[in-house]
């Protein structure tokens, strides 16, 4: 893809938080599944546009989070969209395997039912221990 | 739907920010379109579950934002999902008309193209002036 300097118009349209972050929703480009929401910085957006592989910012680890680097469950970028007020991104991706660290296709696997109970609506497809070498929390 | 006290299990599974907020993604339940992202509080989630009409929290106005109250473009709740770490919601909704204050179906109508330019990929379906009685910013 294009060089970093060329990404400036997109990057300048984004309104980052005071911490320099912007939320990014990942959606499977062909099925429409909403896979996850994570955070990006100006630098990880530029890297994502350059490489075509989605790189988030890990708030807990305080460093770039190249999705799938450990697990192999990478996200290839198909399109990057910016919302009307520039404070949220929508990434259309091709998700290899599962998006969720629990081994499920999507992180949104719990649904509110009648009476306010949360029900799991999706089973793991992959063993988190196999993906990461340890059990998911 | 059920009474507020019954919603406690769902509400207790959510990890709110220090400001008491949680991001909520709205997705059209049948087409899979990602319509918008906004913020909710414990109280607006409880109200949404009770009434079946989506109520966000307006950070700019500092009060509940009953989606469509002014414009008529309401969102009926079909399902509420919570992600793996409890810090993001996915609302499956039925969106009447358009979700975006610019008159477009979705807020994500700008896409990054080659060279980093942002291109509008969706035209307005409704006149913002007719929806709100004034031009959208």
From TrEMBL, chains A, B:
Q: Has UniProt tagged this entry with the keyword Hydrolase?
A: yes
Protein name, per record: Phosphoribosyl-AMP cyclohydrolase
Q: Which UniProt keywords apply?
A: Amino-acid biosynthesis, Cytoplasm, Histidine biosynthesis, Hydrolase, Magnesium, Metal-binding, Zinc
InterPro entries in the cross-refs: PRA-CH (IPR026660), PRib_AMP_CycHydrolase_dom (IPR002496), PRib_AMP_CycHydrolase_sf (IPR038019)
Which processes are annotated in GO (biological process)?
L-histidine biosynthetic process
Question: What function does this protein fulfil?
Answer: Catalyzes the hydrolysis of the adenine ring of phosphoribosyl-AMP.
Q: Which cofactor does it need?
A: Zn(2+); Mg(2+)
**Superkingdom of the source species:** Bacteria
Could you tell me which species this protein originates from? Rhodospira trueperi
Quaternary structure note: Homodimer.
Give residue ranges for domain Phosphoribosyl-AMP cyclohydrolase: 36-109
Q: Which pathway?
A: Amino-acid biosynthesis; L-histidine biosynthesis; L-histidine from 5-phospho-alpha-D-ribose 1-diphosphate: step 2/9; Amino-acid biosynthesis; L-histidine biosynthesis; L-histidine from 5-phospho-alpha-D-ribose 1-diphosphate: step 3/9
UniProt-annotated binding residues for Mg(2+): 83, 85, 87
Q: Which cellular components does GO assign to this protein?
A: cytoplasm
């Amino acid at each position: 893809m294009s060089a970093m300097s060329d990404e400036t118009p997109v990057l300048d349209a984004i309104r980052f938080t005071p911490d320099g972050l912007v939320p990014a929703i990942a959606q499977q480009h062909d099925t429409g599944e909403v896979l996850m929401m994570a955070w990006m910085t100006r630098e990880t957006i530029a890297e994502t546009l350059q490489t075509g592989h989605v790189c988030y910012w890990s708030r807990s680890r305080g460093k770039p989070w190249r999705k799938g680097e450990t697990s192999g469950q990478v996200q290839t970028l198909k399109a990057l969209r910016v919302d009307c007020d520039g404070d949220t991104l929508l990434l259309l991706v091709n998700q290899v395997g599962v998006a969720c660290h629990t081994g499920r296709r999507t992180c949104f696997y719990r649904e509110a039912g009648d009476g306010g109970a949360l029900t799991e609506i999706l089973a793991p497809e992959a063993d988190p221990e196999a993906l990461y070498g340890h059990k998911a929390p």
